[in-house]
Every structure is written in structure tokens, then in C-alpha cells.
Amino acid sequence: MAQGFDHLLDATITHLEALKAEGARSVSFSNESVQILREMLQERRERAEPAQSNRPFAQKPIARETVSRRESSVATDAGKAQAADLVGRVADWPVLNAEEKLTAMRDLASRAGACTKCSHLVKSRSQVVFGVGSLDAEIMYVGEAPGLDEDRQGEPFVGKAGQLLTKIIQTMGLSREKVYIANVLKCRPDTPGQTYGNRKPTPLEMQTCWPYLLEQIKCIRPKVIVALGTTAVEGLLGKKTLGITRLRGKFDDFRGIPLMPTYHPSYVLRNPANRIKRQIWEDMLSVMRLLNHPVTSQQENYFTS
Ligand code: URA
Prior knowledge:
single chain, alpha/beta, Uracil-DNA Glycosylase, subunit E, 2 domains, 14 helices, 6 strands, 50% helix, binds uracil
């Protein structure tokens, strides 16, 4: 029954997000349906773990409505307050088999690829940069937004910062094909009046794009998420955070999945001191240890001198 409910809930959220992607801004429920949903939600709450530590935007009261729009697209007044809880934690998410994952990810990629929610980005982008890697990845790397190279090639982290990320992944004994790489924002942020340069995604852009990343995470169910830079951490946690220098190196939590905040590779490129390289590498060693991946003494000792 619980699993049936979760499947139904997931299908409902996916359907609502598809409607939203197509431009719908509200849906109507009969009073009776709202009552049924309330009762189901109540039952589910009673089943769930009591502590829900990771509530996006929970720190600011103004953001409650933001959360409900961002996470479920349920726009009824009655649904708003509860909507933030509908996505739940990893233990509540349905486990998809390989075929279901492939279908879900293809469907999501095609919806994201046709997304027109941010009209300014639709105009400036060459293409949507969805994500790349294994749908069974244990580690998911999340960056900020595509840059020029990514916009041209349609793949995240393929420019200079991407080459460094690839090197880090390989040094961990992995490959881009074994992990999953995505961004908080799937379109390159526009830079009006400039033909080069990057800018940070705005909170509204990140919020608008959020359902795609959330669905990617739910489909893959990684064992660890590595958030590359402050923007990625804020995009994932849905709240303002301390700067990455203060956050890095300590696991946070994303709905029951350990989340390691670390430097964005472009920060390391701008600050190539051994101390910074060692810190990002220590964060990766922590990830490897958490996953019980063997760590060789050579790996252990990188950048210690
Ligand atoms: N920086 C990011 O955050 N993501 C990319 O895909 C490329 C550069």
C-alpha cells in the first residue's frame, strides 16, 4: 500500500511538473480530492521518520510558497503548506529498475530539452545541458550552470573546469561514465551585451530549474552527492548557506543522501595553491571512504608535500 502510494505520488508529481513545463500555472482539485490528499499525507507523515532536517528554504517564512511551487507545482491553497513535504526523503522514493530509470531519464531529458520556462535563457542558449553519466552512479557531482563550452557541446563540465573535474574523478579511480554529472541550472546563464564570460544563476532561475535536478537525483538515487561550490550547495539545499570555505569537508544531508560540499573546480583553477588542491582532494578522499572505496597510499598522499 505504502509503495503503491509512493508510485502514485511520484506519477502525480511528474504529471504536474509536465503541466507546469507546458505553461500551466494552476490546477483545480475538488474539495473531496483535497480531503483525500490530506488524509493520505497524514498517513504518510505518521509512517515517516519524525525528524525532517532538510527543508529547502525553511529558514525564511517567505519561502514556504516558493517551496511548494518549486517542488510540486500544486498550486491550490490547501495544498501549498503540505507540498514541501511531498517529495520526502530518499527512503520514500520508489526504486526504479534499469529500464524504468532509462525511460524516466529519457522522458525528463526530453522535457528539459524543450523547456521554455526562462524565456531569456531560451533566447541565449544553444541547447539545454541536461546531464551525463551512469544512471546507477554512486556519486553525483552537481555544478552551477553550463558555461560557453558546455552550451556548445551539450554536456556539463567539458571546458577547463570540466577537464579538472574529469582529472579528479579519474584520480579517484573512477571515470565520467561511472559517475553522474549535472548542474543546478540546465541552461547557460545569459550575459546580455557580452559575447563571453559567465554569471551566477539567479535564485529564480535556480528555483525554476529545480524540478529537473530533483528528478535526476530521484531517478539515480546516488549514495553521495558532491556539490561543487556555494551555488551548487545553495541550489541543492534550497537556502542561503555559508561560503564554501566554511562548508567544505563536512558532510551535509540532502534528503537522507550524504552531501559533500567542496570547491568548484574553477575556484581551484583560479587559486592553484597546493593547500586548495589538497583540500578538494581531502573532500574526495572522504567521499571514497564513505563509499568504502579502497584508497591507495599514493592517493592518500597527493598534495601533502
Ligand atoms: N561550471 C559549472 O558549474 N558547470 C559546468 O557544466 C561547467 C562549468
